[in-house]
Structures are given as C-alpha cells and as structure tokens.
Design goal:
By secondary structure, the chain is an alpha/beta fold. The chain folds into two domains: 2-124, no CATH class; 130-250, no CATH class. It contains nine helices and eight strands. A five-stranded mixed beta sheet has the order 4-5-6-7-8, with helices on one face. Strand 5, helix 6 and strand 6 (171-175) form a beta-alpha-beta unit. Helix 1 crosses helix 2, helix 3 (69-79) crosses helix 5 and helix 5 (111-133) crosses helix 6 (155-165).
Amino acid sequence: MIVYTCEDSFEAILTCIYDAWASGLGHRNLKLMVEPVGNLELFCEYRHVDPDSTKVESVIRSIHKKISGYAYQMIFRCAMSCSSEKADIIYRFLLLGFHYGRQITDMVQLPPVLALFELDRAVGNEAHYFREFIRFLNMRGNVLVAHIEPKSDVLTFLAPPFQDRMPSENWMIIDDNRKSAVIHPSDQDFYLTTLTEEEFKRLKTLEDPDDPYIDLWKGFFETIAIKPRENYRCQRSHIPLWYRKHATEFQNPLP
C-alpha cells in the first residue's frame, strides 16, 4: 500500500490527489492521508506531497469540466473538515465523479458519495452554528473582535454573511485553534491572514473587558429567561457546550 500524505490545506490535498492519480499504481493500492499521520501501518510506503499551484489548477479545472461547480463547492467544504480521512474521501469521490459526471452528487447510495456528503453537511452545520453563536467584543481603536474555536476551518464561510451585516464596521473573527483570522476594514473587502503567536497575544491585550455591551447582553439574556421553564437538556441540543466558551451570556453571569 502506498500512502500519499500532505499538510492540512486545500491546495495540498488537491496536489496529493493529482500525484496519486498520476502515479498509475492502481487506485486500490493507494491511500491519501492528511498530516500529522498517527500510527504508521506495516507494509506501507509513505510519500509526502508538497502543494503545487499548477497541479491544483488542473484538478479544479477537471472538477468543473467533468463534474460540476456544485461538486467543487462540496469538495472545498469537505477539505475544511477536521476529519483525518478527508483527503481519501475526496479522492474516492472523484474516482466516481469523473466516471459518472454531474449526476454523481445525487448518487448518495454509493459509500464514497455518502461519506463526502456527510463531511460536507457537518462542515456546513458547524458554520451555520457559529453564524448564530459568534459574540463580538469591543477592542481599542473601535474594532469589533470575536473568538471562536471550531473543529473545522469555517472562517471562509463566516466572513461573507458578516460582511453583509456589518459592511461599515471594522471587525475581525479569530480562530484560536488555528491562529488564523478574517479581517474586515470598514467599507472594504475582508481578507484572511495567519497570526503569529506574538500577534495573537497582542490582540488579547487590546480587548476591552469593560465593554458596557457585555453586561447589557447578559442582562437581556437573564431577563427574558423564564425560570420555571428552564430546560438545560433542551438548551444543550440548541447550543452544545463546546460552542459556549466564547459566548458572552455563558461567561461570569451577573450577580
């Protein structure tokens, strides 16, 4: 078994798929994995692949031409998943996609298509949750900042809705897990960036812990609650516990 490995990025995954396909070793003899690789398997040869923009463009063109733009969107969302199997799942999907064409996205009875569909849905659901649960704090310089710790890399999907909602505000959303951020200057387009450890710590010190809107939001949250009808089990089904770390209303409730 030949195992192709790559870093956890969209470009690296597509390059890995290109090299695996072009190897001519037989699809049954290949497996794709995202680094870091856990326990190494016996009798497997591991080959690391570096991102290559030319190969990435070739794969993207093939997906659009031989399958569809919708399939490309699904593949992109799956590449943002936290699953360690996502590279191999995308590869197996493309094997069928290049054979069946556009109709492959409806053939969920096939295991590779179902696996891709489930990853796509999981990433989409997580992005949807964070669009609802993100809470902004004020930072010096009249900048709104929000922290999230998602399992999947959902920043790309969060930025457009907030740009529509707050086009004239300076704001940023920071992914604490990946030390990355989407930054939106007032009345301009947003952009993605990677933060150094020093930049990440510096931004923390600039946040205003005395923002008056924090207490206002907590007060609103507690005022509208109906104590006799509290149902924590139901509440957890709507906003799971791991989403609450940066949700203002669940931090240090008012006395």
